[in-house]
Amino acid sequence: MRIRLLGLLLLVALTACTERQEADQLDLARKRLHNAPCGAATAVAGAAGVNYDDPHQVYLGDWVVISVCHLDALVRDAEAQQQSITLYIEGLDTGVEPSGIDIESGTLTFVLDRNAKNKHIWSQFLYDPLFDPDARMRLSVGIAGDRPLPRAVGANMSMRLKKLFVDHWTMTWLALLIAVAIALVVYARRSDMLRDGPSVDGVYQPYSLARVQMAWWFFLLVVGYVFIWLVTGEADSIAPSLLGLVGISAATALAAVAVTPPSRSGPRASSGFMRDLISDDRGVVALDRLQVVVWTLVLGGIFLSSVLAYLTMPEFSATMLALMGISSGTYIGFKLPTRKEEDVPPPPAP
Questions:
Q1: Which of 26, 29, 35, 88 has a beta carbon 3.0–4.6 Å from 46's, enabling a disulfide?
Q2: Phi/psi of residue 27, each to 5°?
């Protein structure tokens, strides 16, 4: 009972500290607003973020405070049209509504939120975060579905968006992800996890194409999901079509095990990673295996490009999923004749 009470008190204290910190940040942003002189028209007069070093530097998910000349008139117009006031970026309506409205000070508070509705807007500003870490964008406000408010003469509405937020938690997650990736690669090379079977007399069997394909998509999904989550905070980034790819690779692995009989001549020795993937049981490069490898690499490259450049997982069409299914089905189908031939007893000796 005492432990529960202590935990509850700690949670309340932590929540209070967080709310106090956010309030202090917003107070600082309001104090650092440099508003342009207001005229007779409703217009945006200034903007500031909560960054201590630079009020015009923001990260995705930050608070921003926007000053509006004659804010009360804007609020009345929005109520008359039964619409919300929303945040505009470069003239585009993000659909983000204000978290706070202060008529007395004439300020609106927004969170730079990325969601399913405005993901296409943010993609142009978050493009290529690894090699182009900054982006300039101009903020404004307006009634949803209408035009953004004009800028008052002399108002600085420009913000510098830092695409990557790097702190100790980010570095910890990245280090953990890299360590797990290296450990998996090393373990896969030194074990039978991705091979056709266990080693015999210290000799490793060939790598299994189906198991490697399944591991490939598993690894890409984990890396892509964690990377997008670290940069954008989005926890639901896996596209439905990717589940289809994972399902195809898993079904291929199960079918490959089901239709592959034990070899009468004993297990083969590995000829090397790539050679094992594209060669059949005779050690000859097989077209059915080659097309699976090529299409898996092509779609994997598209996936990585979309994640690293656009911070989103690609949505593959039904045609692409059908193509992967046909390639995998062909690969499984070419295993069946081999099984039938091995099941036929040899002719009697003359």
A1: 35
A2: -60, -40
- The whole-angstrom separation of Cα 3 and Cα 257 is 52
Domain ranges of the chain: 30-162, 168-342
- Which residue type does 233 have? G
- Quick: pLDDT tens for 73-119: 999 999 999 999 999 999 999 999 999 999 998 999 999 999 888 98
Distance, CA of 269 to CA of 199 (rounded, Å):
9
Domain 30-162 has CATH 2.60.40.10: yes
Stated length of the chain? 350
DSSP per-residue codes, 2-56: HHHHHHHHHHHHHHHHHHHHHHHHHHHHHHT--PPPP-SS-EEEEEEES-SS-TT
- Confidence label for 346 from pLDDT (cuts 50, 70 and 90): low
Instruction: Work out the pLDDT band at 349, boundaries 50, 70, 90.
Output: low
Beta carbons within 8 Å of 123's beta carbon, 6+ residues apart: 310, 311, 312
Exposed, middle or buried, 336 (CB in 10 Å: 0-12/13-18/19+)? exposed
16 pLDDT band, cuts 50/70/90, is very low
Phi (first) and psi of residue 22, to 5 degrees: -65, -40
* Run of H or E residues at 184: helix 168-190
Residues 32-62: tens digit of each pLDDT: 777 889 999 999 999 998 888 888 999 998 9
Whether residue 195 contacts residue 204, with contact meaning beta carbons closer than 8 Å, is answered with yes
Q: Would you say the pTM of this structure is higher than 0.90?
A: no
CA–CA dist 207, 214 (Å, integer): 12
Whole-angstrom distance, CA of residue 212 vs CA of residue 219:
10
Q: Please, are residues 92 and 101 in contact by the beta-carbon 8 Å criterion?
A: no
- Six-digit token pair at 285? 């490069």
* Residue of 280, 292, 286, 207 lying closest to 248 (CA atoms): 292
